[in-house]
Design brief:
The chain is of the alpha/beta class. The protein has 2 domains: 206 residues, NAD(P)-binding Rossmann-like Domain (Rossmann fold); 205 residues, Rossmann fold. Helix content is 39%, strand content 13%. It contains 14 helices and 13 strands. An 8-stranded mixed β-sheet has the order 3-2-1-4-5-6-7-8, with helices on both faces. A 5-stranded parallel β-sheet has the order 10-9-11-12-13, with helices on one face. Strand 9, helix 12 and strand 10 form a beta-alpha-beta unit. Helix 1 packs parallel to helix 7, helix 8 packs parallel to helix 11 and helix 11 crosses helix 12. The mean pLDDT is 95.
């Protein structure tokens, strides 16, 4: 059965099922279609299905033309999970957030897997791409799959291959980013390598699903820890009257032994603010206290309050308080030049300012209407940036430094700018670095 499935994958005769058509699943769908596979996309959101059926995209950096090309190749999007039985490969790309106690929330993964179970059949491979703690694939997915009577490694196959999407990064695409893959058994790994080998330029095999799961966490914890370091350095530099961005630029000229990381108003995105907590939570099971990782988390979690203090100090200098002031947040996606709002620190800043009594608005060329979010609610639309509009606010908070902003206009019109991204290099009395 393994050989038959691998042959179908190699010959591009296999039908690929992508479960979860978001920032990870949709680019992967397009890539499989590009090389000639038949793809069925599954999602519980009927709105997404409707948009895709019209040949349109709901993700800014994915053009409608790519969706139309996928549809022409035979791509179908559906909420009907009974069609799971048609697929030879099922790739799960669903969120893995934290719950209110900052503990892993695997409900999306487990609920999705449970929805697949009635329709699983011999000869399929199931691949999990969602970021999670080591042990998830064999502790949560394996018993569920085998509860159907299938035997993983013999007539069904189970792999973990973490996503590495970087929305808005023009230097890398789905096919050019190397992909790590671990199988529950050696046979599972062989199938996993065949599953991704036709669509990814380089697939990197590892010895187990747990090794692959920890690989993903290491990548993102590496970033979280280094961002925590540079955020702490920013606070020290600020107390000393030194521009940390100037220091980073100077240090980055060293051609070895230094990698530049940049401070900001907090951590954002679907990985960096969340992934460290997955490992620290799982490590407790083994009696390990991950002090270094948790310290970085404490530093990064404190950055929004640091920024709010800077806003308060800037308004105080103008004989104003946060309460009653009009504050314009510039950029509410989690990083520049994308429309991705997941875990955006800008939203946390807006909420903190609102709670302190500020009249908060935002401007973001990539997010025209504040989207529906699980934990955050604003009934706002993006404010157009012209001189009169900018000048009408007591404070402009530069939270995400999109390239589309006219920074000279903002500098001329704003009464007060709190710059969390180091966009303004030259000192100015009405610009506060935060």
């Amino acid at each position: 059965m393994k050989s038959t499935l691998i042959q179908k994958l190699d010959d591009k005769q296999a039908i690929i099922g992508i479960v979860g058509l978001g920032y990870v699943g949709l680019p992967l769908t397009i890539r499989y279609c590009e090389v000639g596979y038949k793809v069925i996309g599954f999602d519980i959101d009927p709105t997404k299905i409707s948009v895709l059926e019209q040949g349109k995209s709901y993700i800014e950096h994915i053009p409608g033309s790519a969706i139309q090309a996928a549809v022409a190749q035979g791509f179908e999007a559906t909420t009907d999970f009974s069609r799971v039985s048609e697929a030879d490969a099922l790739i799960i790309c669903v969120p893995t957030p934290l719950n209110q106690y900052r503990e892993p929330d695997l409900s999306f993964v487990t609920n999705t897997t449970d929805a697949l179970l009635p329709y699983l059949r011999p000869g399929q491979v199931v691949s999990l791409e969602s970021t999670t703690y080591p042990g998830t694939t064999d502790e949560e997915l394996l018993p569920r799959v085998e509860s159907t009577g299938l035997k993983v490694g013999e007539n069904a196959f189970l792999v973990y291959s973490p996503e590495r999407e970087d929305p808005g990064n023009a230097n890398f695409s789905t096919c050019t980013i190397p992909k790590v893959c671990g199988g529950f058994t050696p046979a599972c790994l062989e199938v996993g390598m065949a599953l991704y080998g036709q669509v990814i330029d380089r697939v990197v095999p590892v010895s187990s699903t747990r090794a692959a799961e920890l690989t993903k966490l290491l990548e993102n914890i590496h970033r979280a820890v280094n961002i925590g370091l540079v955020n702490e350095m920013k606070i020290v530099a600020d107390k000393m009257g030194i521009d940390i961005h100037e220091v980073i630029r100077a240090a980055a000229t060293k051609p070895f032994g230094f990698v530049p990381y940049y401070p900001g108003p907090g951590l954002g995105g679907h990985c960096i603010p969340i992934d460290p907590f997955y490992l620290t939570w799982k490590a407790r099971e083994y009696g390990v206290h991950t002090r270094f990782i948790e310290l970085a988390g404490e530093v990064n979690s404190a950055m929004p309050d640091y920024v709010i203090a800077k806003v308060g100090a800037g308004l105080n200098a103008l004989k104003k308080s946060i309460n009653g002031s009009r504050v314009l947040a510039l950029g509410i996606s989690y990083k520049k030049n994308v429309d991705d709002m997941r875990e955006s620190p800008s939203v946390m800043l807006m909420e903190k300012l609102r709670d302190l009594g500020a009249d908060v608005s935002y401007s973001d060329p990539h997010v025209p209407i504040f989207p529906k979010m699980r934990r955050h609610k604003f009934e706002l639309s993006s404010v157009p940036l012209d001189y009169e509009t900018i000048a009408s606010y007591d404070c402009v908070l530069l939270a995400t430094d999109h390239d589309k902003f006219d920074y000279e206009l903002i500098k001329k019109a704003a009464k007060l700018i709190v710059d969390t991204r180091g966009r303004y290099l030259q000192p100015s009395p009405h610009i506060i670095k935060a």
